[in-house]
């Protein structure tokens, strides 16, 4: 029944928790170690206040924006998250259809459970995946730079989470049938065979040498690395802590965003992911300088609860919430969302000095 649909992301999360096996829900929702950063990714948005402007004609709201020269309906796009078939049998195909129905961008993870034709350590494998993406009309490459090794995800260790099959690596890499890592999660040995602890800035240069597609670096949380990304020729920077699944006590992404934006100084677009649960969160990120916001777990929750329709509804809800926030803050377009529309913890502290 349409009347029974969830009205926010948190309600979709509760439905997903009920729908999924505990092992799979913990894998999707869990973070590293104490999960401090996992909690802070969400909580940090709650510490930012809005500064609405009034008596402005907001009868027409335009949420459209451009990213890398492409027009999109709103600045909300789907983050690269792997193994969507854990949430729904149609996996990333259903997510891609939901994103397309909302006229937005989906970033397909190499660890997706569907092949890129349907929607690491080995440079030959990476090069093959890049060529396949180019031939299929993908518009950009996102290089995740914060996973030289796998973070310690204790829920997965307790659950003895098994490594999901990755369709994009079929025929390119072979793995032992027994991926048990001797007491840890079975993901850990899988990660040792696919992740590369020697990954460095020279690999960004190598990736640029094999593709003409723009390359965005995902996993930047400091000004120092943001400047190096620009120097390395990145077409964009994504402020991300990998959904708090890698290094616990890394800063929440919304708290790191402004530092990165200032360091980049307009040279390339800055995106952000992690902790977004409301359209007001998207508004806050835009005010702090993000060009677009990537959502991962919320789409996963929608997919687990109601399949493609749920993923689509989650994106639509966030869009409607963003539109409402813009109207109530007196912003008729994304360009009118400015730094003066938010009050951060730092602003309040500086006001007392």
TrEMBL record:
FMN binds at residues 80-82, 109, 144, 218, 240, 273-277, 296-297. It is found in: Peroxisome. One of its GO terms (molecular function) is (S)-2-hydroxy-acid oxidase activity. Glyoxylate binds at residues 27, 153, 242, 245. The active site is at 242 (proton acceptor). It comes from the Eukaryota. Keywords: Flavoprotein, FMN, Oxidoreductase, Peroxisome. One of its GO terms (biological process) is defense response to bacterium. Pfam families: FMN_dh (PF01070). InterPro entries: Aldolase_TIM, Alpha-hydoxy_acid_DH_FMN, FMN-dep_DH, FMN_HAD, FMN_hydac_DH_AS. Its EC number is 1.1.3.15. Its cofactor is FMN. One of its GO terms (cellular component) is peroxisome. Residues 1-347 form the FMN hydroxy acid dehydrogenase domain. Belongs to the FMN-dependent alpha-hydroxy acid dehydrogenase family. This is (S)-2-hydroxy-acid oxidase. It comes from Urochloa decumbens.
């Amino acid at each position: 029944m349409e009347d029974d649909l969830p009205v926010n992301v948190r309600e979709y999360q509760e439905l997903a928790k009920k729908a999924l096996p505990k092992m799979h829900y913990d894998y999707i929702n869990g973070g590293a170690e104490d999960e401090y950063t996992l909690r802070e990714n969400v909580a940090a948005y709650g510490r930012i206040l809005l500064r609405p402007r009034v008596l402005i004609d907001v009868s027409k709201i335009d949420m459209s924006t451009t990213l890398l020269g492409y027009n999109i309906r709103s600045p909300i796009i789907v983050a690269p998250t792997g193994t969507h078939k854990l949430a729904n049998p149609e996996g990333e195909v259903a997510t891609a259809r939901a994103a397309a129905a909302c006229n937005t961008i989906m970033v397909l993870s190499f660890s997706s459970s569907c092949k890129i034709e349907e929607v690491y350590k080995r440079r030959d494998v990476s090069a093959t995946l890049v060529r396949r993406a180019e031939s299929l009309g993908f518009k950009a490459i996102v290089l995740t730079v914060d996973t030289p090794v796998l973070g310690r995800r204790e829920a997965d260790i307790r659950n003895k989470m098994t490594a999901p099959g990755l369709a994009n690596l079929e025929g390119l890499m072979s793995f032992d049938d027994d991926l048990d890592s001797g007491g840890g999660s079975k993901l850990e040995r899988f990660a040792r065979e696919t992740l590369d602890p020697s990954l460095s800035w020279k690999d960004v240069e190598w990736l640029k040498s094999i593709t003409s597609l723009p390359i965005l670096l995902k996993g930047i949380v400091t000004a120092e690395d943001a400047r190096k990304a620009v120097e390395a020729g990145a077409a964009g920077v994504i402020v991300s802590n990998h959904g708090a699944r890698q290094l616990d006590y890394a800063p929440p992404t919304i708290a790191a965003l402004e530092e990165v934006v200032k360091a980049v100084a307009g040279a390339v677009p800055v995106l952000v992911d992690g902790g977004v649960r409301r359209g007001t969160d998207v508004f806050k990120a835009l005010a702090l300088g993000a060009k677009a916001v990537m959502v991962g777990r919320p789409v996963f929750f929608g997919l687990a609860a109601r399949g493609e329709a749920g993923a689509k509804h989650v994106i639509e809800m966030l869009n409607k919430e963003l539109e409402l926030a813009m109207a109530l803050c007196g912003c008729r377009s994304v360009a009118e969302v400015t730094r003066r529309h938010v009050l951060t913890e730092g602003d309040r502290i500086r006001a007392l000095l």
